[in-house]
Design a protein that fits this description.
With about 90 residues, the protein is mainly alpha-helical. It has 3 helices and no strands.
Length: about 90
């Protein structure tokens, strides 16, 4: 378990950074009508992922504990939401 705690934080940072890069490549241009459903869902996924990444970075490297949402239920819910959004993006 001690090895997992050393590997997970850097891998989460890499996941967030690669996600930001991929979003810049995939998002595309916004039409006159507004954003497409794909772009809306991708934006929501990006927001949740960035929130999770920043929260993890601040907890592990800056030793800043969250003021609210101190439990693991909200981050777990965000991860499940990201997974479900991934399934609905291509419908």
């Amino acid at each position: 378990m001690k090895y997992v705690r050393k590997v997970i934080p850097p891998s989460l940072i890499v996941a967030v950074l690669t996600g930001l890069y991929l979003m810049s490549q995939i998002f595309g241009t916004i039409n006159q009508e507004g954003m497409s459903i794909f772009q809306i869902l991708l934006s929501l996924k990006a927001f949740l992922g960035i929130w999770l990444g920043l929260r993890g970075f601040m907890q592990v490297y800056l030793k800043i504990q969250p003021l609210i949402f101190k439990g693991h239920l909200l981050p777990f819910t965000f991860v499940l939401t990201i997974l479900f959004l991934s399934q609905f993006m291509y419908i």
